[in-house]
Automatic annotation (TrEMBL):
Glutathione S-transferase UstS-like C-terminal domain ranges (all copies): 112-203
Transmembrane segments: none
One Pfam family, short name: GST_C_7
Protein name: Glutathione S-transferase-like protein
Length: 207
């Protein structure tokens, strides 16, 4: 009996060695590793993300600040079910249903809780992570200029230097980020046995 073809995982790659760095694809990578589902990675340069998503006939599931479509990654192609999934949380749900693990990605009756936690964490890191880290993203030198133009269009910037946060402004933003993380961290100390949301047992939201 032949082994099933591994899942194809589309991730945003830094360069030139193509290492994972983007937060949302990392969530999907965590879920893939957690589920122990065999997978191979296709690293996509940032300027090619929209083209890659369109080639797979997957509509965008996220929006830019101006409300326009935001085609991004991750995507998985699960060859065992002939399924394409293009959102990190939906990828976790798919893996939970079709590649169950022990312990499970989602304990019983916790999907809604995980969805709320994911939305809260996503908003927090979008608000603080982009201003604090966006300027220093590890772009592939071969496509760096195109990647910067993509980022500038995404966030409505006229100059790449507008993304650079320094001095007192950076210190204030960092303080706000630390305070926001403190609120998020409080969710992890509700169970004495820790360190995950559900105590000692790792789950999707406990990463």
């Amino acid at each position: 009996m032949t082994s099933p073809k591994p899942i194809t995982f589309y991730d945003i790659g830094s360069g030139p060695s193509s290492k994972p760095f983007a937060p949302n694809p990392w969530k999907a990578r965590y879920a893939l590793n957690f589920s122990r589902a065999p997978f191979t990675t296709v690293f996509v340069p940032l300027p090619d993300v929209a083209k890659t998503r369109a080639s797979l006939n997957l509509p965008p599931v996220r929006k830019h600040l101006d409300g326009s479509d935001f085609p991004t990654l991750p995507i998985i192609h699960d060859h065992s079910t002939s399924t394409l999934v293009g959102d990190s949380f939906d990828i976790a749900l798919h893996l939970h249903a079709h590649h169950p693990s022990t312990p499970p990605l989602f304990p019983p009756n916790t999907v809604a809780l995980h969805r709320a936690f994911n939305a809260h964490a996503d908003a927090l890191f979008t608000e603080h992570g982009v201003p604090l880290a966006g300027y220093w993203l590890p772009f592939d030198p071969a496509t760096a200029e195109a990647s910067r133009r993509e980022m500038m269009a995404r966030f409505g910037l006229k100059s790449w230097e507008d993304l650079k946060l320094e001095g007192e402004a950076r210190a204030a933003k960092m303080k706000g980020f630390e305070e926001a993380l403190g609120g998020l961290a409080a969710w992890f100390v509700k169970r004495d046995e820790g360190p995950f949301l559900e105590g000692a047992t790792p789950i999707l939201g406990g990463r």
